[in-house]
Amino acid sequence: MKKKLLSIFTAVVLTVSMAACGKGSGADNVDKDKSKSVGEEVTLSVMVTTRPTTDAKDFYLDWLPELVKEKYPNINIEVEQLPTDQYKQTVRLKFASGQGPDIFTWWPGLQAQDLVEAGYVRDMSDFSLLEKFNSDIASSYEFDGKTYAIPLGSSFLTTWYNKDMFEDAGITELPENWDEFLDCCEKLKSAGYTPIATGDKQSFVIQFGMYQIGASQIYADNPEFDDQLFTGETKFTDECWEETVSKFEELYENGYVIENSLGLSQEQSRQAYLDGKAAMTFDGSFGYDALNKDGAASFEKGMFALPSNEPGEELVYNLTPSNGLFVSADSEKQEAINQVLEYWFTEGTPLFEKWTTTTSDISCYEGVTDSRELIKEYLERYKDNASIYNLNNAWPEGVSDTMCTKFQEVITGNADAKDVCQAMQNKFEELNK
């Protein structure tokens, strides 16, 4: 398998011949503003997923409205944030009712397909600063040759760990295969520590461990697995996927996961890790600020890719385009939107500086480097390994939700790995008719 970030769009090409809806044209929408004077009071609605709580000012909730107001006194920014599991449904309902947000963040690949097909989002291909962004990342938001979002960066799924607990349990080397990872868990458990905290009450959190396992289990042998789903050459019921779910299930069966994980939210599982109640948690680079806060316990933190590979086989890790910034095609405030975006993404402006220094994403903007030591250390460690996007980026929207909710039944003992895989395949076939 070649060292690369695998393309998530071959599947789209195979299954979707998309005609860009007329109302998605940026030029057409800018014309809507010609009746508005530059100084007229304008309020732009912005929607984002819930940000991690920190002591510092938040970019979207604080800096964006404040700095835009300083630059453009007539432009007000109103930000609404929702947890991920509510966010998708709310955004879709708003657009369906004709009240979509002016600007919003969304996921790449097939997760954005329905919004593009419905004509809800504006074609951003003519955005003057788009060339400043990494073209490979930008292509993650491309449909039918048009780019529908401004890429905000990349991120990776990872396993955060407590270095002090590892040392106390006699773990001197990070695990490089599945057997070594299980051995780490057993040593931690024997030393009196809970190995893993997960917030399975919010089903989307299940992805953070499952996709790390799937990266090596599925894509090391067949990097084209997702493309082949659409041609019928592969299925979610194939052995590689059943083994992926079984390995994740094994962690629960062996008592390595915190008790009552189905009663914990993502925030509560993060807090359990910070308070020293568990040695590890499955999360991502996007949790950097939240997981570097002080908790009840003080310890040195680290990250490693969860290795599901067998000894001597290749470890593949998750590195994926993160959310992009989308614009409503039907907004009547396109001129104000353009002013904000130009100000936001022009190097050297106060808003640009706050964005690049507060973002949880790994920047894909030309010339911007990441200063976070753990991020740099992680990327350096795995620079020679193959990487894969977050797996659901290549699936029709809904398959991942099915996987997560069905795995909740596995945790309660009411389903098994075969049931999860069959449910995923059924959902895929339903959505891909």
TrEMBL record:
Q: Does the keyword Methyltransferase apply?
A: no
Keyword Signal set for record: yes
- Fetch the InterPro entries from UniProt: Bact_solute-bd_prot1, SBP
Q: Which Pfam families match?
A: SBP_bac_1
Q: Where is the signal peptide?
A: 1-19
Query: What keywords are annotated for this sequence in UniProt?
Result: Signal, Transport
Q: Which family, according to the similarity comment? A: Belongs to the bacterial solute-binding protein 1 family.
Protein name per Swiss-Prot or TrEMBL:
Extracellular solute-binding protein
- What is the native source organism of this protein? Mediterraneibacter gnavus
Recite the lineage of the species: Bacteria, Bacillati, Bacillota, Clostridia, Lachnospirales
